[in-house]
Amino acid sequence: MKVLVCTWNVDAAKPETLNSVDNAGGNDNVGFLDNVLSSVERPDILVFGFQEVIDLESKKMTAKTVLFGSDNAHKVSRSYKLWYDRLVYAVRVAMPPDCPYSVIHTENMVGLFTCIFVRSSEKEFMSSMAITTVKRGMGGHYGNKGAIVSRFVLDDSSFCFINCHLAAGQSEKAARNSDLAAVLEERSVFPEALNADQGVVFTGGGDGSMILDHEFVFLNGDLNYRIDQRREAVISSIRAGDLQYLLGHDQLLKEMTNNRAFRLRIFHEAPITFLPTYKYDRHSNEYDTSEKRRIPAWCDRILWRCRDASKVETLHYRRYEVNVSDHRPVSAGFVVRLKKVDYAARGLVESEVSRQWLQEERKLVQQNRLFYAELGWI
User: What angle do CA 42, 108, 328 make, to 5 degrees?
Assistant: First the structure.
């Protein structure tokens, strides 16, 4: 089963901004979606996880809608629909006519937007589909930070996809760690999967109500982890092509290695071979030249988790030269090995095990009777 995940902080860019070539050389605006969709041949699952789909003014309007109620919600939702329509069109055009796709999940939350496609031929094998949100802004009351979490069962394997936007700021590592812990440990994030064989489909004795109950978990987003170095040193290393030096100071990688309590410690990430994806001047290949002069960083990441890591193979992990946002998009392709249970054969095995256990149980009871009889206790 092939899985393709694309994450991008669009910085409120509209889909039509991808239609034109600007003066900055080497940009990939026009061909971006086609290039993403062709990065994995005929993927079975397509996941687009975007952040900051709406601009700051719209965020304020959305906050008023959340806190006080408003009739302006349609103005916000229009931004999501524009991207939804563009993705649906791009998938239909890019994929072969004999390989149609269907949208199974779409959700938004104050800038976050998730859209998941599957090959139409796989829909009949899917069950227990659910999607929800976890808010982390304003003490968990507002969705400007947090995650969209979706899940489904395919054959007898469970999938969970997390699209998140974590706390910003060079020094806010602890807040990001806290955001992740809250998302991953959210109880009853999903309804119990009543129509699935929980002992087969989920892991660790879970019932599918929590994220880590699922066999395959993919996490993408603007995680906002930074590089702990001065800006001049980072820029110098980028120009010299010394990514290994920078990766040694990447907050996320250091947390995964050194912090035993870090919730992403059980996740995997493919080796990073591309330049930091944040923060660029819009319509430019230059890192932030504003007064803030933010330090470049690999904010945009894709990670995965499976108890049996041999079931997941990474096909690629790369970025795209799209310059309409202050972030560069990233995609990752995977091959995952699903399980399909032969329930007839399983039933026969269960019956045989039950029969053998009943015989053993009777044998043990008889042995105990004889033992206590010899002692004169019975």
Answer: 60
CA atoms of 250 and 166, how far apart (whole Å): 16
List the end-to-end C-alpha distance of the chain, in Å, as a whole number: 61
Say whether 232 sits in a helix, a strand or coil.
Answer: helix
- Angle of helix 73-94 relative to helix 56-68, nearest 10 degrees? 120
Indicate left, alpha or beta for 221 from its phi (over 0: left) and psi (-120 to 50: alpha): left
- φ, ψ (nearest 5 deg) of residue 230: -65, 150
The sign of the dihedral angle between the CA atoms of 160, 165, 170, 173 is negative
39 close to 32: Cβ distance less than 8 angstroms: no
Beta strand pairing status for 126-137 and 112-119?
A: unpaired
pLDDT per position as a tens digit, 347-370: 788 788 999 999 999 999 999 989
User: Which pTM value belongs to this model?
Assistant: 0.88
- Give the closest residue to 133 by CA, choosing from 112, 148, 115, 122: 148
Tokens of 83: 């991207």
Candidates 262, 227, 263; CA nearest to 248 is: 227
The arrangement of strands across the sheet holding 330-336 comes to 101-109, 112-119, 45-51, 2-9, 330-336, 312-319
CB-neighbour burial class of residue 245 (10 A; exposed 0-12, middle 13-18, buried 19+): middle
Across the strands, what pairs with 165? 146, 222
Residue 179 DSSP symbol: H
